[in-house]
Amino acid sequence: MExxxxxxxxxxxxxxxxxxxxxxxxxxEVALVxxxxxxxxxxxxxxxxxxxxxxxxxxxxxxxxxxxAKMEAADRTVSIDLLIRGLVILGAKPRDIARALGRETGxxx
Amino acid sequence: MExxxxxxxxxxxxxxxxxxxxxxxxxxEVALVxxxxxxxxxxxxxxxxxxxxxxxxxxxxxxxxxxxAKMEAADRTVSIDLLIRGLVILGAKPRDIARALGRETGxxx
DNA sequence: TGCAGGCATGTCATTCTTGACATATAGTAT
DNA sequence: ATACTATATGTCAAGAATGACATGCCTGCA
Lengths: 109, 109
Known about the structure:
Helix content of chain A: 55-70%
Strand content of chain A: under 5%
Oligomer: homodimer
Number of domains of chain A: 1
Number of strands of chain A: 0
């Protein structure tokens, strides 16, 4: 596993010595979580690239600053739908979203 | 717009002479709908490639045959999350999902 | 020091999504 | 015709996601 991602996951309470191995996370669930983390990072990167605050983005999304924070934290209460909506509002095209989703994460055996 | 997709959209009530142009669909909404359609097609293709019935897939998903039908129809009551979960269960890797999402659709001016 | 802006996190009522069920249609075989 | 299988579509109670709000933590700055 790529080191930066490991720290980010750990920071949110995921045990990473062996991502899902450690606490009963099926491979499917792991894949979903990693996709969410990738999308959330892409969201933050795009927002910052535009010099927007979370509040400013929230307004465009008709949401709230707190939810944007959760989106960027890949909180378990945010759906992939919402993350994708956020990215689209930040100008991401399906192709960009695809790139974010599929980021090579390196397979930890 | 690619012809096959146009017919599929029309079949579910979308006016396509100008996708979102015709009835107040923002560009963002159009992008979202197209991504959903792409995912749903990929889902059906994968399911059929494995020779599974909708019912068989539904069981793996712990869902119902009717919901799988709606997923494949890109029904507005199915979330992107659910579509992605379905694809993952059918063995799609993030990379595969990314490819499905970003399928070139051809820009109708 | 106090104050403001940006971000994180918990809670909660409202809204949306989901699985389950009923029912319909079409194809195939007996 | 009857029966069976696969798929499509509507409805709805239960559960999940959402937006809004409160509040706390920093950092910078007057």
